[in-house]
Amino acid sequence: MKQKSAPFCKRAHPRVQARMPVYIAALEGITRDVSAGGVYFELEGDTEMDNEICFELELETTLGSLSMQCSGEVVRRERRNSRTGVAVRMTDSHLSAAP
């Protein structure tokens, strides 16, 4: 007999809560959660942006910093107090040692 999946198993890419710096052009923000297929981050102010964006995540490891350059599609944008929350479906990413 097949067991039913728990609700959290329905996602193609489960989310992990993580706070990492994110950089988009001249803007800087912080992630709220990430997955293999996307990211949710918050930026200061009421920020407008295109539907297709390029951004960089800064990852700290025990061996040093890594930089993840990403491109993706904005799937949701929401005003949260004095910040703008942005959900992005990643379409491409490259990982490298941070300069």
Report on this structure.
There is one protein chain. The chain is an all-beta fold. It is built from no helices and seven strands. The chain has a six-stranded antiparallel barrel. It is globular and about 35 Å long.
Describe the structure in brief.
The protein is mainly beta and 99 residues long. It has strands at residues 16-17, 21-24, 27-34, 38-44, 52-61, 64-80, 83-97. It has a 6-stranded antiparallel barrel with strand order 2-3-4-7-6-5.
Distance between the termini: 53 Å
The whole-angstrom Rg is: 15 Å
The count of DSSP E runs of length 2 or more, i.e. the number of strands, is 7
Structural class: mainly beta
Shape: globular
Q: Note the run of SSEs as H and E.
A: EEEEEEE
Keywords, separated by commas or semicolons:
single chain; 99 residues; mainly beta; six-stranded antiparallel barrel; globular
SSE order and pairing:
Elements: E1 16-17, E2 21-24, E3 27-34, E4 38-44, E5 52-61, E6 64-80, E7 83-97
Antiparallel strand pairs: 1-3, 2-3, 2-5, 3-4, 4-7, 5-6, 6-7
